[in-house]
Amino acid sequence: MKSAATSHTTPATKRTRGRPAQGTSVGPDMLLRNARRTFAKRGYDATSVREIARESGVDAALLAHHFGSKEALWAAVVEQIAQHAAPMIAATAALRTSPLGVRERVERALEIYIDKVFDEPDIGLFFATAATEEGERFGLLVERMVRPYHRVLVPLLADAGKREALKVVDANVLFFMLLNGISKTVAYGHLVQVFSALPKQQAKYKRVVLETALNMLG
Predict the structure, then answer these.
(1) How far apart are CA 67 and CA 61, in angstroms?
(2) Weakest mean pLDDT among 19-28, 106-115, 150-159
(3) Which of 130, 132, 171, 186 is deepest in the core (most CB within 10 A)?
């Protein structure tokens, strides 16, 4: 005769294909974030959908269900980043007509950008890896991730240069030097940490990154 404990034992629910493990909830947004981190670490060619699924604790069928192919998944990652960057871009665009001086507009734009980079540092890593792509993926990266922000920040840099509020030799070059320098300094905080304790103190680290960027502007 079975004991009471045995008779009331419920068999473990098996995980079905295309569904996350029991007790977990992995929606499209989280899947894209996991994909972004994996693509950032390995690049497009070296990343498999199965690897992203494993990192997410789901079956690859779930990724296929939501996004289809690996190419479509990569494109969805870029689109997610573009959507997350939209408020930052809008806030930067609004600075062009703000009552601030031309230098102060650039300073405020960098504050907004640095806040975003610290909130999602892996975006910088994704961009650094994705910038080596060619063909349609490179074109998508430019049109969705770079050009919208370039369109609103470069005029601020150019205005400040024309008014001699900043030393701007070329606004386009300055745009890329600022963005890449800031994003990689934050994304590679683990490397900076070998030489400085600042990355362990996020508020102070953010302040130092901003002050350093502003000082570089002259």
Answers:
(1) 10
(2) 19-28
(3) 186
Rg value, the chain, Cα:
22
Look up tokens 């600042």; give the residue.
Answer: 198
- Among 33-37, 46-50, 107-111, 129-133, the range scoring the smallest mean pLDDT is 129-133
Sorted by sequence, the CB contacts under 8 Å of residue 218 that are 6+ apart come out as 166, 167
Yes or no: say if 44 and 74 are a contact pair by the CB < 8 Å rule.
yes
**What is the sign of the dihedral through the CA atoms of 109, 179, 118 and 207?**
negative
Angle at 209 between CA 86 and CA 174, to 5 degrees: 65
Are the C-beta atoms of 88 and 113 separated by less than 8 Å? yes
pLDDT of residue 178: 93
Is 92 within 8 Å of 105 (Cβ atoms)?
Answer: no
Q: Report the C-alpha dihedral over residues 100, 103, 108, 110, rounded to 10 degrees.
A: 160
Question: Residue 151 — pLDDT band, cuts 50, 70, 90?
Answer: very high
Task: Say which CATH class 74-216 falls into.
Answer: mainly alpha
Please, where are the H alpha helices in the chain?
4-7, 28-42, 49-56, 60-67, 70-94, 102-119, 122-130, 135-141, 147-162, 171-187, 189-192, 202-216
Predicted local confidence at residue 23, as pLDDT: 35
In Å, how far from its chain's centre is CA 35?
11
